Amino acid sequence: MKIDGETRSARKDREIIQAATAAFIGKGYDGTSMEEIATRAGASKQTVYKHFTDKETLFGEVVLATATQANDVIESVTTLLSEAKFMEGGLQQLARCLITTLMDEELLKLRRLIIANADRMPQLGRSWYEKGFERMLGSMASCFQKLTSRGLIQTSDPYLAASHFFGMLLWIPMNEAMFTGSNRRSKAELERHADASVGAFLVAYGVQPK
């Protein structure tokens, strides 16, 4: 797919990264060769090396490209947790969006791959966390601070509240998927879990009627 305004070099970068993502997810880091990535990308091995110095560099680009996809989720955090949206069930909508996005099968496979290589490439795991989950956590904490100042929730530590929210939402389904090798829950099941998590969160942090 051609993107408007995209240069030929940028398009080739994107095609190589997409091919590398599929190869790494399918065969793991050690089982993937630059030659296979070149074949999947419809390019020569020399072209792949011209754009990316080596396999580790390319794997790093795959990790960063995936982490930046969190930007869309981060934007949804600030939109759905505005004062008006919060009163209309924005937290529940957000929870459903987050759990279905983060439990995507390909994203889970890449997450496992990053963890499996964390000892020898710790900087990649750090980048994934900082550019993805940590940014979402910070954005959520900022929204919770604003909601607290407007009397819509009650928390003395918005960052801790954000941590509790993500913990309630993701701890069980994420660990289940990471240890069993796949996401066995349907979208409907994930959304029911999200709704229950929001209910529990609001028991702890919601403003109690007088």
TrEMBL record:
Record-linked InterPro entries: Homeodomain-like_sf, HTH-type_TetR-like_transc_reg, HTH_TetR, Tet_transcr_reg_TetR-rel_C_sf, TetR_C_Proteobacteria
Record keywords, A-Z: DNA-binding
Residue ranges: DNA binding: 33-52
Domain of life according to the entry: Bacteria
UniProt keyword annotation of Ribonucleoprotein present: no
Domain HTH tetR-type: 10-70
Name of the protein in question: TetR/AcrR family transcriptional regulator
